[in-house]
Amino acid sequence: MSIVVENVSYRYAAGTPLESAALKQISFTIQPGEFIGILGHTGCGKSTLIQLIAGVLTPATGRILLDGKDINQRDFKREYLRKKVGIVFQFPEQQLFEMTVERDVSFGPRQLGLPPSEVQARTRQAIQSVGLDYETVRDLSPLTLSGGEKRRAAIAGILAMEPEILILDEPIAGLDPVTRKDFMAFIRRLHQEGKTILMVSHDIDELSAFSSRLLVLDHGELILDNTPEKIFADKARLSELRLGVSQPKEIVDSLREKGIDLPSDIFRYEPLLTALINRFGGQNE
Questions:
Q1: Which phi and psi angles does 90 have, rounded to 5°?
Q2: DSSP string, 231-274
Q3: Model confidence, pTM
Q4: Which of 115, 179, 189, 272 is deepest in the core (most CB within 10 A)?
Q5: Which helix (H) or strand (E) holds 118?
C-alpha cells in the first residue's frame, strides 16, 4: 500500500495576521514496507506533515493519495484510512483514557462494529505483540503501568486496528536508555513483519540505525530525500541545515582523519564494530 504526497502545502492561522507557512510544496512517495525517518529542527514541519498523511489535518494545496485515492476527497471513506494508517503521537501514554488496559486497547476495534469475539482476539493479540502479558495487564488501570508499558499499551491500541502503515512522532522521547533500546527493537520487529514505518525523531543515531531512507525538512521544505549513506556523506550540507551525522559516522570520520583506513560510508554501530575488528582484531596491543 503506497502513499503519495503530491505538492502539499499547509498554513497555520490561514487568512489571519498570524498566518504562517508550515509546509511548502512537499512531494514524495512511500512504498510498501519502507522504514522512513524524518529529520529536522523543531518547527520545520515534521509533525504537521505526518498529521496530514494520517488525515488529521487537511492540506491547503496538493493531494495525499492512499493507493491512488485522494484521502481528502468527499467520497473517500475515512474509515478505510483509519484501518490502514495508524498514527502514534508524541507521549502517546497521555492519550490513555479508559478504566482498564483491555478497554483502552479495544476502543478502536469496537468503533468498527466488529463482532465481540474478533474485538477480543484483536485486543489480546495487540497487547501480546507489544510485549505485555494479556492476563496480567488486561484489568489494570493504564495509569498503574510504568512509562514504557504505558507507551506500549497506547501503541497496542493502534495495532488493534491492524494498520498497514504505522506513523510515529518522537516515539522514544522521554524514555530511559534501556527502555529506548527495547522499544526500538519492538518497532524493528513490526517492520520486519511487514509494517510500513514512518518515524519522526530528533535522534539521528536511532533514525540512521533503522531507516532505509531519510527525509530532511527545513523551514517547511523537503530539502533532502535519500538513503542515510548518501545524506551523511555530505556533512557540509548537513552543517548548513544545522544537523549532524550519526555517532558512528563521526567516529569513522575522526579515525580516518588520524590515518586509520576505515570505509567512509559507515554510519551504523554494527558495521563500525565489524570494521574495527577487521582492522585491529588480529593485532597485538
A1: -60, 140
A2: HHT-HHHHHHTT----HHHHHHHHHHHTT----TT--SHHHHHH
A3: 0.86
A4: 272
A5: helix 116-129
